[in-house]
Every structure is written in structure tokens, then in C-alpha cells.
Specification:
- The structure holds three protein chains of three kinds.
- Chain A contains twelve helices and ten strands.
- In chain A, a hairpin with a 2-residue loop joins strand 4 (184-188) and strand 5 (191-194).
- In chain A, 41% of the residues are buried.
- Chain A is of the alpha/beta class.
- Chain A starts with 10 loop residues before the first helix and ends in a 6-residue tail after the last strand.
- Chain B has one domain (5-126): Rossmann fold (3-Layer(aba) Sandwich).
- Chain B has five helices and five strands; from the N terminus they run βαβαβαβαβα.
- In chain C, 60% of the residues lie in helices and 1% in strands.
- Chain C has helices spanning 12-15, 22-28, 34-43, 51-58, 64-75, 80-87, 95-105, 116-120, 125-137, 143-153, 157-167, 176-185, 190-203; one strand at residues 2-3.
- Mean pLDDT of chain C is 92; it is low at 8-14.
- Classes of the chains: A alpha/beta, B alpha/beta, C mainly alpha.
- Chains A and C meet through helix 1, helix 3, helix 6, strand 2 and helix 10 of A and strand 1, helix 1, helix 3 and helix 5 of C.
- Strand 2 of chain A pairs parallel with strand 1 (2-3) of chain C.
Chain lengths: 288, 132, 207
Amino acid sequence: MTSPPATGLSDADFTRFCEYFYKRTGIHFTPGKRYFVDKRVDTCIRNSGYDTFASWFAALRMADKGEMLQDLINQLTVNETYFLREDYQFDAMLSNVLPAVLKARGGLGRIVGPVKILSLPCSTGEEPYSIALRMLEEWEHIEQVDVEIHGADIDSDVLAKAAHASYGERSLQRVPKAWVNKYFVDVGAGRYQVDEGIRSAVTLHRVNVCDTAAMRAFRDFDVVFCRNVLIYFDELSSRRAAENLYSSLRPGGYLFLGHSESMSRISPIFTPSRLPEGIVYQRPTGAK
Amino acid sequence: MTSDTATRARVLVVDDAATVRLYHTSLLSDAGFEVEEAVNGLEAVEAALSTEFDLFIVDVNMPKMDGYTCVETLRSETVGSAAPVVMISTEDRPGDADRAYQAGANLYLVKPATGDRLVRLARMLTAAEVAT
Amino acid sequence: MGLVRKQAPQQPEEALPVKPSPETLLTRLHDHDADCRREAALGLVGVAEAIPALLARVGTEEDPRVLESILITLAAHDSEDVAGGLAVHLASDEAGLRTAVAAALATMPRSVPSVLPSLLAAPDHDVRVMTAMILADLPHPDAHAWLARMISEDPHPNVVTGAIDALLPSATEDDVQLLRDAVERFPDDPFLRFTVNAALPRLTGGS
């Protein structure tokens, strides 16, 4: 059993902080995470320039725009991106969601138009390319059905990297060697670039998910992955982002959030449904 | 009917007020129930999708999804729960109780409900479940 | 077959159909199709001229998703006309409406103070309970003080307990006497006593 670091939070402050964080995000910190939280909160307090937990915490609760909260969440969550991250959701897409999508759209013989999948934020591209690899390797109908994969992000720097699509071993560590050999080109210096054929098949866009007008470009998606970004937004922005994602979906379309995120802190407009791999959200079909 | 702890009845306490959740959770866990919490109707629906509950205690005034909508959703095909629901509210407007029963609640109580009463009701409602 | 690129890849701006005018969107607020109304409300973000029409729909819109989109658009203005127009619905018999309006008001720290005096003095104690809910989340430096006043002065125990719940996350040692006094005022309320007793050890620096 470790005691908290010298600059750590008092028990009362730790409790107060955890309750606030749970209320805001739905994320629980157990006593076992005490040391982790103490350290990270301490970093935030120092970054912010406040002297004490009390003054920092008061400012955090007062701030209705997101910077302090963003810094806090950055400190408290793992935000590294890599291929096949949280891939149990790709499992869910393949085993449950895509069959349901096909069925809803008339089945193999009658589906009109492509199956459309959106990854937002796509960051440096690992997520949309992971989807592409899983689809190519494991979707039984990939030869019979058109699939469009789109990636979107607000940051043009990461989009440029996504377009270039070259990655180091850390990012690729969960990718089977056989897939690396098949779908990537060794470009030296420990980096591998996604095949041109796949790169050109993934469409990248620059967009702010909170911008309703800009998000109108995205319509009729069957599956949207919006993982680990809504958690950063303040109340109104996250609700508007949820609305824009809803509008981007076909009725009956599916939305995946990050594994520790929930619509319960954001918006009631989606219908939750339970898959073996966890909760997924749907835009209602509108059929009564 | 056994008193084996593995078959303790599971209750979901749904209220946006942390103090109210604490109060109900303490009462019910002291009385031998396995208690989980949800801060609003949406979280309650998601919890009910993942876990089978034997009883729901649901507040009326909650953000994101109010209590009546929550109960309707628990009863709908989204969740399909038939477990008893006790709604608790600070409000005492005419028609509130009817609204609760329309939504699918079994009981409607006005706050503050005394601890003893709630525990007695919880035992009665979950025993009835076990017996059927 | 397989992975395909959208046939005519375009920049999002080029791909957008022409954005409907505010006048068109205002008309669509009354469309029989709920999705159309919803998208119209969302599209009216930032349009001050739309406030009266949106406020008028708050009381009459039956689809909860459309109501949600109307409130998101209205709340972003954070102006006194919106705060005043929304506050009347805190007295609504519809739980979904009054809680959705309370949640919207809780995001409006600049304009809610203008309606607070009348809310705190509302004859209907249920409205005052909703007001405590708003103050629980309103990011305003005086929220704590308003809640403290409710705790020491409100005549209804359910309002006081709601205010205590709202105050506790920001409570300090300085609030101990306030909370003890509330128990004195309502000695027969077991929930209030339990809540204060559970909170006091943390505030007095114990455990």
C-alpha cells in the first residue's frame, strides 16, 4: 500500500474530485487509482498556474469553455493512437453491425449504394486504415459490396500524416506480421506505408464535428466511430456534436463511442443497444 | 427461498442527486440488497441493458432523460424489463402518480420517503418476484 | 466492389448542398416531419432573429429530439430574452420539458442571473427545486452563495435538501454551520439529517 505523494490530495479533496469527474464523464476512479490521479491532478494544477487544489478546482468548475477540462482529461486518459486500438468494436462491427446493416438495406442482392463508414476523429489515420484492413481481411462480403471509408479530423497536420500513411513499429505492434507484409510497404527507418490502393480508397476530410453546417457534408453513414473526442467537449458542444453525428447517420445507422464513454453524459437522442462486445448507439429508424 | 448471498436481489437506484443516491444505497444495502447507481435515466437504461435488475428506484426530475421516459424505455423493447419500478419524486402535482403508472411504474412515492417504508416496499416487491 | 472511393471526391464545402436560408429554416420549424424540424432548429444556430420562433416552439414541440435541438440552439445565445423565455417552463407539468429546460439554463451563466431573483421567490416550491438543480451545474462564481441562501432561508424541506445536494461538491469548512442550521430547522426530515451527517466529516477535515 503506497501513501499519497507529498503534494497529493487530501482524502476529502480526492473524493470531491472523483465525484466531480464521475458526474461529468461517467468515469469512476477506484481507490487503487489514487496515486495515478494525485499525480495527474498535481500536473494540471501546476500547468494551470493555480496554487492550491481548492483554487484550481473552483476554477475548473467555473470554466464553461473547455481548456482546463481538456488538459485534465488529457492527463487522465490514455490518448495514444495505434492500429487496432479497442478493436473489440471492430469485432462487433463485423459480427453484428454489418449483418444488420445489410439486412436493413435489402440484403446482398438488393442493397443500393455503398456501405459507408466514418472514422471521426481519424487523427493520423490508424483508425480508418485499421477498419480497412479488418474489412479486407475478414468481411466475407467485401468482394460483393462497395464500401466507402471516410476519415475526418479538425487538425490539418494529422490529416496530412494520415494521407501520407506511414507508421512506425509502435503504431503497428498489434497488426499481424502477415498483414504488414500484405498491405504495407517498408519505406525504411523502421517505417511502413499503407499501400497506395488502400490510401486512395480512404477519403479524408477536414471538419469540426461541432459545426452543423460543415457536418452536413456527411450523410447516410451506416457506421460511425467517434471515439475519445466527445469527452473533451463542454456540455453544449458535446450535445451539438452528438446531433451532428446523428444527422450524419442513415436511420438505423450505428455509432461507436470510446470504451469508457457513454451517451448518458451527453445526449438522449440515440437508442442504446447491447452487443456482446458492449454498448452501441443507433439513430432510430423512425418506424413506429 | 434461500438467503444465499449469491442470490441477493439487485436494485438500481436512479437519481441525479448524489446525496439521494447515497441515502437510498445505504438503506438498501444495509437491508441486504445488491445496489448499483445511475445518475440519470439514460445511464439507467444502459445499466439495465448490461445487468438484470430485480428492482428499480427512479427519481422523476433528472437531466438527459427524466424518470417517466426512463421507465417507458425500461419497459419498451429497447430493454424489455418487467422488474418492479418504484418512482420517487419531490413533486406532488395532480396526475403525477397516474403518469407514473402509465409509464409502467408499480409505485409512486413522494419525497421524503421514510427509510423503513422504502425497505419494506423493496422487500415486498422483490420477494413477490422470487415467488412467481 | 471492395473498398471504393466516393465517385467524385470533393472538399466538404463543395460537396455541401446550398445551405437553406434562415427564412426557409424558420418555415421548416413547423414541418410535419420531426427530422426536418430537428435539422431546422440545429441549422438556426447563431441566428438571433430566430429566438422568438424557437422559444414559441419550446412549449408546443412534442417530439423530445426536436425539443433537444431547439434548446441546444437557444442555450448557445445565453441572452436574457432566452433565459426569460425558457424559465417559464420550469413550472411545466411535463417532467421532460421542465428538466430539459433546467439543463439548458444550467449552461447559461451570463443570462441566468437575470431570472434568478424571480425563480428564488417563486411561490411554487417545485420551481425552486428546479432552480437548485440549475445552480448545481451553472458555472457562475455566485452559485455557491445563492445556494447557501436557499439553504438558510427556503421554507420547504425538499428545496433545502435539493440546495444542499447542489452545494456539497463545492462545500468547505465555512459551510458547516449553515448545514447544521438546516438540520435544526427541519429536525424531522431523516433524509436531510442523514445527508448532512454524511457530509460533515469530510468538511471538518476528518478522514
